[in-house]
Amino acid sequence: MQLVDTIIEARWVLPIVPKGVILENQSVIVKGGNIAAILPTAEARTQYEADDVVSLPESLVMPGFVNLHSHAAMNLVRGLGADLPLMDWLTTKIWPAEGKLMSPSFVHDGAYMAGLEMAASGITTTSDHYFFPMDAARGLRDAGLRCATSAFVIGFPSAWAKDDAEYLKRAEAVLEACKGDEFVRATVAPHAPYTVNDEALKACAALSAKYDAPIHMHVHETAVEVSDSLRDHGVRPLERLERLGLVNERLIAVHAVHLNDEDIDRLARAGASTCHCPCSNLKLASGFSPVAKLLSRGVNVGIGTDGAASNDKLDMLGETRLAAMLAKAVAGDTTVATVFDMLEAATLGGARALHWDDRIGSLEPGKAADLIAVNLATIQSIPVQDPAAQLLYAAGRENITHTWVNGRLIAIRQEIVAYHDLNAVDRANSLAGKWQNRL
Ligand SMILES: [Zn+2]
Question: What domains lie within the chain, and their CATH numbers?
Answer without folding.
Answer: 2-63+362-435 (2.30.40.10), 65-353 (3.20.20.140)
